[in-house]
Amino acid sequence: MKDFNKVERHEARELAVETLYAMDFNNQLKESFDLSVLPGKSEEEMKELSDNITVYARYLISGTLEHLDEIDEIIGRYSINRPVEKINCVDRNILRISIFSMLYCSQDVHPTIVIDEAVKLSQSLSTDVAYKFINGVLDNIFKKEVHK
Question: What is the CATH number of domain 6-146?
Fold first, then answer.
């Protein structure tokens, strides 16, 4: 996964969040899912994306889904005042791909970059103040789970 540039990784993360959001919104996270077609993107839009973007997005999506229960348990532990199911759907899925990246992809991307990307995604896809919540949760997870 090291061959992807910064822009491709960002676009792939955005695509992964959009896909997980659509799956979450439609209660499809626990179903087996064909990732050759990503919900939320038309066939035309998918053709415009580079192979690197779709490959990395599918990697993030499938890895997040594979570890979903563990990831949600971690979110629940560090989001003390908000249970996972009460977190805004976009924010919840930004947290999910970010935690997957921090725990399982740290050899490819340093966790501080993952947190920075999560904040950027939150600023562009969520509410004005959500990035503070996401930054706080991910920073605590990094300090207590990743950087022990």
Answer: 1.10.940.10
